[in-house]
Structure formats: structure tokens, C-alpha cells
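C-alpha cells as discussed.
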């Protein structure tokens, strides 16, 4: 029924720009919105627009009914008053057409409409006039006893206060709505910040008024609204809500600590962002999202908060799923401890999130997990005989301890893998130095020896990037030197791949000078780090020999008879394609963090497709050597990434088990190479366009 109504509303009233299916809603604005508008609404922040999906999000029935009522009664006209009033039409300002682009046309209109309130009805007075605000609040106090939702929303849009305390009657609007049994009015007031637990002049709450009037459903809903914050956190963590009817409270009735309250509110906003982000990613076209820049990677800035708090709110997005779950567990546990009035029995330890090398301390110290763990264990032992079954509650002690043990096991495994990685890195550096000494000797021997001589040397595994580092020398220069200290950090990230390494001198009977293309020089700068036209190739056996790889690299460059193309694509196009590549890489890395190895292949295909689209922007024979090198690295890394990701799914069940630790390291290294090559192309294009 509601979906049918929603479609007609989308055509007639609600969807501002097109007759499209309204899959989302802005709760506090009382309008249904399409996918395009939703991306802009989410970027405004929850203090401007509270966005929720109509089908994939959880809805209290009365809250959904309230939004439906506002939308069907034309709440959209409240926010477009001056556009609909012929006497107040502003010169030069029009409503966007369905064919207009989201950015910047529709996005600017939405920001003016909801953030700046540019089209709402303006009273003939200053916005900060306290007398007018008081009068509006008194009108709201009287209107909530009726069923006219749009009237109350109009008063709230003009500045009426949902928590206004009437000096003569000694009540708030929520008390009046509860007494009159107006549950939809109560939902609207709570959305705009009304306190369900606020007492009247005699100390009675809106729940007391509702129960006295026989409105049991309204009283129970007000109880749920009072505990909405911690209920939402518990549901995000374990998919269950407290049963407040039976008194199974897992959160405190009061939070006296202001900082703890602000932290809980910020985490609540982050939960809302992540849930909407998950729904958004499952219902949208990823390539379209990237090109239109509609992603919301962190909480938008709220001007009512301090800069420090806004920074902390945005850094919540840096938490992965495991770290964010740990933070929620800590908040819920400390909330329960505060409710029971227990104090800390051990010193407070800082929260360790595994960023030991970060010099900046971005988060305050909080209580350690051991305190909550010991308190919960003690309570369970003392109350096990006379307490009710905890399985009826939203989360049991056993579930909490299982999550805690799983987190501890994961941390131990991470530490073990880091130790193994360090050992392998040390071994790799030692073998690299030996290979460099061998390469130096062959280099000197190749200059003095005949051109047709061929020398094969077997050595330890060496990464492709290292063979490039020893090949960047001018013809006739001195033999290569060992790795400099500046390259050691790069070498420490590489992992051993294959056991065979070959060093091949030129076989064409000519000198070293004939290997590089005419006019091309190798320098030690950033561009030459990815030059594949080496004289001597120290490479890995990953599908073709070093001689074949060098030949292929030479064929990719401009031929002697071809004319280089000096043109470069538009910087904006390159940036858009780079954002698309970055978005797909983030999806791959997220799958690696969550051990979803079966997602490697589709993620690598998306990355390869995005890389192909980005490379197609550039000419086939670019004039700049740096562009050629970056494009070669981009294409080669994308192909190598596809090959590595295919290993995650064995062709046969009886095949050799996959070493997912090593495979993940190789996948990450390939993704790093792709990102670096894309960044180089953006830098080069930007620099050349400015010149």
C-alpha cells in the first residue's frame, strides 16, 4: 500500500526534480527523495537532513507513518514556499529540471533549500528575535494537540523550539501531545530534539501523561525514543534490540558525563552513516557514484560543534569493522557500569587500536576492557542463582565474552603475521644485496665481453621493482651501487615471490647505447622509478622471460618511424578516472581486511576495467617519457593483480592449498603500484596543463 502511494507521491509532490522512484526519505524534512538527491542529502549531515531508506532500513511503524503523512500532505511546499508563491518569486531563481546535472545544479539547489532555508516563509522580523521564537513555540505548544502535522512542521521550520517549556502551563509540547494521544506529533517532536524524559512543573514525564490518558502504545514508544541512542548501537553490533516492555535494559537511564555522552552521540551518527553507506553501495551503480562524487566517506562538519569534536567525528571513519565493534562494546559496557553505579577498580589504560607508529594521539584514554570483563564476570557469578534468563535480553555475557575472545585471537594472529613478515623482509634485503653484487659483476663483464655473450645466473627471489632500481643508469656510467638507505623502507614492503632470477645482457651484438630509445635518458628522479627499458634485466619468472619482457617493453614505446603525440587529456577527466580506480582499490582492500578471498576476482576485474578506461584517455604514443612509464606500470600492475587474484580461487578442489597470507601481500603490493602510477599520471597531467 505504502509503496503504491510512494510512487504517486514521487510523481506529484515529493521527488523534487523527476518522476522517479523515491527509495529514500528525509525524516526531519518530511519528503521522499530519489537516489540522486539522496547523495546530496547525505553530504549535508544529519543535523541538516536525517536520511533513511524506505525498504532496507529498520523503521518503527509510527515513525514511518509520520513520514508518509507529511509527504502526502505536501510538506515539500514548506521548503519551497517562495518558489510556489507568485508574489514572492525571486528573480533569476528557478527549480532545476529533471534533465539537469546533479552537480552542480541540483546539489546547489538542495543546499539552498534545506541548509540555507532560502525558500521557506520569512517572517517580518530578525531571525534572532527571541520574542518571535517564543511566540512560535507557544503556537507549537497549542498545535500539537491536533492532528495537523504540516502545521507543526511549518512552525518548527520557522524556529519554534520542540523542547519549549510553557511558563504558564508548566509543560512542554511533548507533554501536550502525549496527553492528547497524538503519537505522530510525538514522533515529529522527538525527531526535532524533544526530550522524552523531560519533567513538567510537577516532575511528571510525557510517558506518565500517556499512561494516564490510556495511550499505552504511545507510552511504550516514548520509552523507546528515550533509549534510542544505545538501542541503535546495540542493534548495529548484534542485530538485537532491548525489550523495554519486560524491563530488559542494557543501557543507563542517565548519562551524567558530558564527554561520554558526546562520544556516544558521535558513534551513533557514525553508525547511521555506515548503515546508509552499506544500503547505498548495494543499490547503486558504483561507476556512476565515483564519477558524480556522491560518496560520503566520513561525517560532515557540524558547525554547532567545536573543531576538535568535528575532527574526532570524522576520524571514526578510519575504524574498520572490528575496531568499530570494539568501540561500541566499550561504550555499551561502560554505559551498563554507569547505570549500576560501579567505579573503576584499576587504572585507566589508553585504547590501543594497533597504530603503534602513529605519532599523533587522536583519541582520549578510556577505561580498559579488563575492568568491564571482571565486573561482568563477578556479577554473573553472584546473581546466577536468582536472576532471570539473560538470553531474553539484547546481548548476553557469553556473547560478549565470545566477541572479546575472538578479538584477542585476531590481535595475536596479526602480531604473529607481522613478526613473520619482518623476518621475510630481513631475508629479502639480504638476498637483494647479494643480487646487486652479482648484477654489478655481470654489468662490468658485459661491457668488456662480446655482444652475443649470454650469461644466466640463478639467485634468490627479487621483486620487479628492485630490478628497475638497478637499471637506471646512463650509458657508459659507473656500475650500479647497492641499495641506498632511502630505498630500504620500500624494500621492506616487498615479499618473495618466485625462486628464479635471470640476468640477461644484450644479445644483439651492439653496445649498451643501442638499447634505450633515441633521445631518452634515465635519471634517478621519480619518473624513472618505473622505467622498464633497461639494459640488463633482473626480473622474476612470472609468465615470460626477462628477454621477452624487455622486448615487449621496448615495443610499447614509440617506434623510430612513429610520431610522438604531445597531447594530454583533460585534468578533470584524469582525476575522475583516478577516483574510480581508487574506489575499486578500497573495495579490494576492504575484502582483504575481512578475509573475503572469494571477492578478489570480481574486485580485480573492476580495477582492470577502471585502469583500461583511464589509460584510454592518453594517446597511444605519448611524447613524455614519464607518461609512457606510468602507463606501462599501470597496465602491467593491473594485469599482474588479476593473475594474483585468480589464485585465490583454486581451479580444482584437490589443488594445493593457497597461502592466503602471501597472496594478500602480493595483492596489496599490486594495488599500491596501481595507485602510485595513477597518482603520477594525475601529477604529470596537472603540471603540464599549468605550463
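Sequence:
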Amino acid at each position: 500500500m505504502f509503496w503504491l502511494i510512494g510512487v504517486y507521491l514521487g510523481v506529484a509532490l515529493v521527488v523534487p526534480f523527476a518522476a522517479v522512484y523515491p527509495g529514500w526519505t528525509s525524516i526531519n524534512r518530511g519528503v521522499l527523495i530519489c537516489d540522486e538527491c539522496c547523495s546530496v542529502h547525505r553530504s549535508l549531515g544529519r543535523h541538516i537532513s536525517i536520511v533513511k531508506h524506505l525498504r532496507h532500513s529498520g523503521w518503527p511503524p509510527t515513525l514511518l507513518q509520520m513520514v508518509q503523512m507529511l509527504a502526502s500532505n505536501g510538506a515539500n511546499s514548506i521548503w519551497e514556499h517562495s518558489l510556489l508563491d507568485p508574489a514572492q518569486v525571486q528573480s533569476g531563481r528557478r527549480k532545476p529540471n529533471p534533465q539537469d546535472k546533479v552537480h552542480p545544479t541540483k546539489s546547489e539547489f538542495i543546499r539552498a533549500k534545506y541548509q540555507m532555508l532560502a525558500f521557506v516563509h520569512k517572517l517580518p522580523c530578525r531571525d534572532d528575535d527571541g520574542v518571535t521564537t517564543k511566540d512560535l513555540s507557544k503556537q507549537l505548544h497549542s498545535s500539537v494537540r491536533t492532528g495537523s502535522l504540516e502545521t507543526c512542521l511549518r512552525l518548527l521550520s520557522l524556529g519554534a523550539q520542540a523542547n519549549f517549556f510553557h511558563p504558564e502551563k508548566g509543560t512542554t509540547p511533548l507533554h501536550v501531545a502525549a496527553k492528547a494521544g497524538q503519537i505522530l506529533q510525538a514522533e515529529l517532536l522527538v525527531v526535532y530534539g524533544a526530550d522524552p524524559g523531560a519533567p513538567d512543573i510537577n516532575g511528571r514525564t510525557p510517558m506518565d501523561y500517556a499512561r494516564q490518558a490510556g495511550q499505552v502504545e504511545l507510552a511504550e514508544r516514548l520509552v523507546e525514543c528515550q533509549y534510542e541512542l544505545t538501542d541503535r548501537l546495540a542493534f548495529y553490533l548484534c542485530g538485537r534490540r532491548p525489550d523495554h516492555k519486560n524491563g530488559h535494559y542494557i543501557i543507563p537511564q542517565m548519562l551524567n558525563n558530558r564527554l561520554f555522552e558526546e562520544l556516544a552521540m558521535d558513534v551513533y551518527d557514525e553508525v547511521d552513516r555506515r548503515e546508509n553507506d552499506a544500503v547505498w553501495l548495494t543499490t547503486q551503480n558504483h561507476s556512476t557514484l565515483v564519477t558524480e562524487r556522491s560518496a560520503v566517506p566520513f561525517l560532515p562538519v557540524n558547525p554547532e560543534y567545536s573543531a576538535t569534536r568535528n575532527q574526532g567525528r570524522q576520524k571514526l571513519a578510519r575504524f574498520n569493522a572490528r575496531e568499530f565493534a570494539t568501540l561500541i562494546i566499550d561504550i555499551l559496557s561502560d554505559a551498563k557500569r554507569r547505570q549500576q553505579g560501579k567505579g573503576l577498580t584499576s587504572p585507566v589504560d589508553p585504547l590501543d587500536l594497533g597504530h603503534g607508529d602513529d605519532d599523533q594521539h587522536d583519541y582520549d584514554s578510556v577505561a580498559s576492557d579488563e575492568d568491564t570483563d571482571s565486573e561482568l564476570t563477578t556479577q554473573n557469578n553472584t546473581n546466577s542463582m536468582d536472576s532471570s534468563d539473560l538470553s531474553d535480553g539484547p546481548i548476553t555475557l557469553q556473547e560478549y565474552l565470545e566477541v572479546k575472545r575472538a578479538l584477542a585471537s585476531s590481535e595475536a594472529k596479526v602480531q604473529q603475521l607481522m613478526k613473520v613478515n619482518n623476518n621475510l623482509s630481513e631475508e629479502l634485503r639480504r638476498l637483494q644485496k647479494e643480487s646487486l653484487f652479482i648484477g654489478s659483476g655481470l654489468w662490468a663483464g658485459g661491457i668488456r665481453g662480446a655482444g652475443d655473450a649470454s650469461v644466466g645466473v640463478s639467485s634468490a627471489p627479487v621483486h620487479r621493482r628492485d630490478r628497475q632500481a638497478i637499471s637506471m643508469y646512463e650509458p657508459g656510467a659507473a656500475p650500479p651501487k647497492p641499495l641506498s638507505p632511502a630505498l630500504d623502507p620500500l624494500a621492506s614492503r616487498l615479499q618473495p615471490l618466485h625462486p628464479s632470477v635471470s640476468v640477461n645482457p644484450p644479445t644483439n651484438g651492439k653496445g649498451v647505447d643501442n638499447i634505450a630509445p633515441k633521445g631518452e635518458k634515465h635519471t634517478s628522479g621519480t619518473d624513472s622509478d618505473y622505467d622498464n627499458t633497461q639494459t640488463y634485466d633482473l626480473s622474476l619468472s612470472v609468465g615470460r622471460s626477462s628477454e621477452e619482457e624487455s622486448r615487449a617493453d621496448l615495443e610499447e614505446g614509440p617506434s623510430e618511424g612513429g610520431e610522438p603525440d604531445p597531447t594530454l587529456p583533460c585534468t578533470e577527466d584524469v582525476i575522475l578516472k583516478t577516483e574510480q580506480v581508487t574506489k575499486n582499490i578500497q573495495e579490494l582492500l576492504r575484502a582483504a581486511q575481512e578475509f573475503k578471498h572469494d571477492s578478489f576476482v570480481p574486485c580485480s576485474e573492476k580495477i582492470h576495467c577502471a585502469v583500461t578506461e583511464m589509460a584510454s584517455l592518453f594517446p597511444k604514443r605519448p611524447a613524455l617519457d614519464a607518461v609512457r612509464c606510468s602507463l606501462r606500470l599501470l597496465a602491467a600492475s593491473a594485469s599482474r593483480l588479476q593473475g594474483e587474484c585468480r589464485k585465490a580461487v583454486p581451479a580444482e578442489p584437490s589443488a594445493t592449498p593457497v597461502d592466503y597470507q602471501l597472496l594478500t601481500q602480493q595483492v596489496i603490493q599490486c594495488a599500491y603500484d596501481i595507485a602510485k602510477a595513477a597518482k603520477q599520471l594525475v601529477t604529470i597531467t596537472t603540471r603540464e596543463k599549468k605550463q
